[in-house]
Amino acid sequence: MTTYPIFQDSLRLSTFKKGEFPLFITHYPLKHGYPNHHHEFAEISLVTSGNGTEIVGGEEHRLQPGSICLLPPYHLHALRLDDGKPLYKFCCMFDMNSLFQPAFAEVGGWLVKLSDETKPYYDLPPDAFEAIKSVLSALEAESASSSLGKQGFMRIKLLEAIYLFFRHHPAFASFGQPVELSPVEWDFVKYVNTHFMEETISLEEVAGKFGVSVFVVRGAFKRLLGKNFLEYLHQLRIRRASSLLTATDMSVAEIAYDVGFSSLRSFTRVFKETTGLSATDYRKKQRERAE
Fold this sequence. Notes:
291 residues; 5-stranded mixed beta sheet; 10 helices
């Protein structure tokens, strides 16, 4: 029987009332591993005690107190525990729109670089671990309260946690300074990051949604990311396809349609152009490496 990643749909944007900040946070003991899953929210997690292994996009990394991970929407991840011992962690899921505000433009740029150029996880040094743990504790307490200014306070604490995550990331120095931009330009990138699996997405569709010309959207992608629209769309799709090839036994055709390609032939061509391997050879190589 073919195994598919679980879409964790218990928490969706539609579950929040109008005016509510779309965020869920909990600190809890995980007593069993968790299979491959994904969701429409971004997620920041922090291990506070225990050990295990997390698999992100088919790549494993060890978990220990201070292990932190920031994942954009629809990234595949799974978790295994050591000898059935519980692992305690903060799990904070939130609408990625929160990170693409004009006043905090650098965060959106960093998130794209994190997703495309470096690892989304690392181990915090002791002082940073305590600082982020304190921020997430305050965020959890506020989310459960009915205090005056709750929604604004939650935004502030989330941004504080995200800034601390990037400040202490080993590759932070390579992220560089943000380019100047108009308020809508990161909206184009954000939209593609959250809709890339839809077959109908196109340069023309994005331009129409935001009421601008295709030249404006095309120029924004080239200036902000150094890639044209189609290159970036293919990059997002092939990254997810690579994860599915590594972490599931879905057929190549099933994966091609899952990530948004309208034909297997197109997927096969783009995958080989991007990775240098056919999808079948890529899966075989990844499984041989894991043995």
